[in-house]
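thought: user wants a sequence for this fold. calling inverse folding tool.
action: design(structure=
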């Protein structure tokens, strides 16, 4: 069998799909966001509950997406679902957000975090140059071979999970317990769960969990998608929920809050507190290497949205082109260019909040679409139905909507930038529609 044919017929397995989901989720957020959360929340119970609530939101979302993916098995994720459920304009907007923010910004954040961790271990390394180099190298790998990219993803994600489990176990054995209560002792512990600080911190946590829907962007490349996609989403999300709660417990259990406050590289800070400066530096270096998995998974999944948009919209047709190995090389390069722009032009926290708001908005609309689709097309074949419907999707909508409301109230600048991005996308859509109509008129005899 020739290489070209092998690449074309190759399908992503359940294991690779789970690896993509886990790698998309476990990365920037869990290694960087706790330092921002402790600035507004001092209760150990509330801080740990952030990650439990975030995991529940992600699981409810995965259950809902599993039904949509099985009922509408095509690559493209929210772009495909929202176009079919609501209107092509809304689908375009979600694709626009995914192309410009949804993957490019998180890829940039993962690469920037990688550079920060590497610099904490090797101070002579310029973090921006390293971030750029990693993005360029992984873009080249995924643009050349789908099989090579899949194998790389499984290997580095497996190593990541094993290292994190080892870190949690070693941290539990070596930690000097901090005077922080992880069970509620007073009414104020419960009240913090309803505070604006908790809601805004859920932005960071939701961002950390945001890769739970990664596999739906690759639906057309997954083996038996109607059967395997729900399994991929649920297993991947459940694994990450366990890892996140365990990691943040160790960070808080072992390290004074004052040392974590405002720090990006919280994993390095906690490792130094646990094992001393030497082993702390080693752990910081390991985390930097593990973040390669996160960058790789986003470089792999994100361009598939741009590709599907290019297939559907004549104005973006050049982005839908694939190589002889059925790889969307142009879309991969396009996303890489946007990623590099974020790396060299924006600060870490600003990019994180901006991306978190816009992404949460479209996952909200997608899960809401589950109700709309059941109402409009009750007879549509559904090989998988969301477990716990309608409670699980309603729980997702309630928690996600609550977070969005508080972001808009507490972070108006990032909210405005998010809405500006949507406005620009809407203008691009309508200009493209006008151009298409003019071309159609000109071609008429």
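)
observation: tool returned 445 residues.
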């Amino acid at each position: 069998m020739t290489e070209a044919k092998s690449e074309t017929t190759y399908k992503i397995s359940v294991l690779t799909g789970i690896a993509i989901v886990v790698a998309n989720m476990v990365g920037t957020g869990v290694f960087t966001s706790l330092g921002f959360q402790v600035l507004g929340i001092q209760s150990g119970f509330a801080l740990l509950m952030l990650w439990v609530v975030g995991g529940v939101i992600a699981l409810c979302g995965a259950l809902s997406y599993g039904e949509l993916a099985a009922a509408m098995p095509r690559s493209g994720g929210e772009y495909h679902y929202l176009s079919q459920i609501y209107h092509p304009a809304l689908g375009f907007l979600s694709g626009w957000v995914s192309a410009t923010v949804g993957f490019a910004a998180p890829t940039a954040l993962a690469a920037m975090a990688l550079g920060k961790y590497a610099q904490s271990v090797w101070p002579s390394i310029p973090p921006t140059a390293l971030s750029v180099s990693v993005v360029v190298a992984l873009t080249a790998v995924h643009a050349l071979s789908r099989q090579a990219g899949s194998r790389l993803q499984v290997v580095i994600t497996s190593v990541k999970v094993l290292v994190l489990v080892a870190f949690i176990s070693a941290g539990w054995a070596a930690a000097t317990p901090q005077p922080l209560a992880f069970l509620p002792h007073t009414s104020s512990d419960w009240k913090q769960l309803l505070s604006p600080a908790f809601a805004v911190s859920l932005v960071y946590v939701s961002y950390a969990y945001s890769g739970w829907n990664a596999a739906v962007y690759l639906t057309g490349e997954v083996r038996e998608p109607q059967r395997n996609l729900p399994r991929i989403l649920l297993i991947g999300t459940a694994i990450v929920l366990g890892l996140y709660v365990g990691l943040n417990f160790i960070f808080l259990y072992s390290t004074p809050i004052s040392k974590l406050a405002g720090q990006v590289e919280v994993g390095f800070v906690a490792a130094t507190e646990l094992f001393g400066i030497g082993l702390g530096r080693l752990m910081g270096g390991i985390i930097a290497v593990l973040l390669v998995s996160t960058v790789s998974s986003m470089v792999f999944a994100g361009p598939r949205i741009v590709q599907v948009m290019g297939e559907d919209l004549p104005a973006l047709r050049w982005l839908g082109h694939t190589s002889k190995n059925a790889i969307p090389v142009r879309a991969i390069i396009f996303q890489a260019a946007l990623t590099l722009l974020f790396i060299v032009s924006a600060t870490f926290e600003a990019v994180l909040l901006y991306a978190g708001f816009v992404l949460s908005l479209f996952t909200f609309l997608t899960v809401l679409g589950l109700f709309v689709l059941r109402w409009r097309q009750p007879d549509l074949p559904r090989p998988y139905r969301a477990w716990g419907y309608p409670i699980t999707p309603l729980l997702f909508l309630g928690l996600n909507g609550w977070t969005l409301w508080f972001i808009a109230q507490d972070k108006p600048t990032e909210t405005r930038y998010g809405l500006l991005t949507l406005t620009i996308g809407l203008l691009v859509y309508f200009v493209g529609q006008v151009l298409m109509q003019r071309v159609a008129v000109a071609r008429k005899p």
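thought: summarizing for user.
answer: Here is the designed sequence. Confidence is low (pLDDT under 50) at residues 1-8.
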